[in-house]
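User: My notes are a mess, but here's the protein and zinc ion's SMILES. Can you give me a structure?
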Amino acid sequence: MTIERLLYYWLAFFGIILCRYFFISGVVYWYFYIDNRWPKVRSQSLRSKPAHWKLIRKDMELSVGASVLFALCAATITLASDSGFTLLYQSIDRYGWGYLIFSYVISLIIQDTYFYFLHRAFHHPRWFRLMHQGHHRSGDPTPWTSFAFDPLEVIMQAVFLIAIVYIIPLHFFVMIALLLTMTIWSVWNHLGYELFSSKFPHHWLSRWFIGPTHHAIHHRRHHLHYGLYFTVWDRIMGTHDPLYDDDFTEALNGQRSSSVD
Ligand SMILES: [Zn+2]
Ligand SMILES: [Zn+2]
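Assistant: No problem, the inputs look usable. Here's the predicted complex:
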């Protein structure tokens, strides 16, 4: 009975997660890489060479595998929630709107912290090939890279999702919002185009929130920029590129284009 329900949930989540990946990454890829009608956006490509179909197909294969495992994680959480084992709740009145917003923000902060240190560990020579090489196979990322993770990396990422529902009470809406934020932010980080001017780092938004250039730098220089949502841990831990705060283009190329007095 439990196995049947687990299989039922797994199949449902697998379909949802896979469709979500192909739909969002597909639409964004088509919009920016095939139908890109804006010369200004085209000129702000972060790629060193055109996207290659062979590498995109590799990203897709890894993403299908990631969908299998994330669906298993979602099915396990749902089954545990049905049995009352998690802190997931359904009535907003239980803790109020203030807590709802707080729980969303604190979950993002915890996930960002977990991801930063996990990601740094993945780049240790001992773990890289086993756990994180697949994500970096494409060199310069595309939206298809946003969900391309090796199976062991997926398991380690899923640990956060399984643990968080036992650590803090989360409304179902907050859980869905968290998953949507992960998806959209990951596609944004792997967009391969910068939509803001090269001087945008001066803006507080770009100073504290990770975007396409910030993450593209990580894909070129693996010792920098391990964060997921916020630049805070990179700044604290000394893995933030100092050039990034002055000019996107200079930071991406790893050198200043003109002399600085
Ligand atoms: Zn990495
Ligand atoms: Zn990446």
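Residues 135, 141, 145, 190, 215, 219 surround zinc ion (ligand 2) (CB under 6 Å).
User: Great, I'll file this with my notes.
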